[in-house]
């Protein structure tokens, strides 16, 4: 029943063109997610949901000060891991491919980069798949749409079928632990 309600809410939202609700967030690193913004992007004949969530910072992160400038992490590297935080089923690969196609269109029509505040999560969702960038650190980060696509794809390739055992979420976490990119079941 909860999945039916999510689907009904999302369908109604897309039908009217104004997003009033977004899928809940249950990623490995984003505790206590709260929706900050939500927009439906019409790309390539598909409606892809772009959301930003705030995450509850740890006590240590709350005490750190935030600089006034951002750090560009485009082209950085990360380590891939898998988990079952978001359930038991992986997303449908065609849904993830739609997100990758949407990113190609997005970066040609918008800026090739995006900013994410500390303890925030930016997500693109289509059908059963979500690609996300999560800023776990204390500094605003700038990332590239191309990195979101390639790291999300790599995380999915490491964790989704035909890989056995498969997982519903793949993460690519920065070596310094300040950010993660992932692909997950929405």
Structure description:
With 186 residues, the chain is of the alpha+beta class. It contains four helices and ten strands. The chain has helices spanning 2-16, 59-63, 93-109, 145-159, and strands spanning 34-43, 46-54, 71-72, 78-83, 113-116, 120-126, 129-135, 141-144, 169-174, 179-185. The strands form two sheets. Strands 1-2-6-7-10-9-4 form a seven-stranded antiparallel beta sheet. The protein has a three-stranded mixed beta sheet with strand order 3-8-5. A hairpin with a 4-residue loop joins strand 9 (169-174) and strand 10. It starts with a helix and ends with a strand.
For this entry, give a set of tags.
globular; 28% helix; seven-stranded antiparallel beta sheet; alpha+beta; 186 residues; 10 strands
How is this structure best summarized?
This protein has 186 residues and is α+β, with helices and mostly antiparallel strands. The chain has helices at 2-16, 59-63, 93-109, 145-159, and strands at residues 34-43, 46-54, 71-72, 78-83, 113-116, 120-126, 129-135, 141-144, 169-174, 179-185. The model is unreliable at 1-25 and 59-65 (pLDDT under 50).
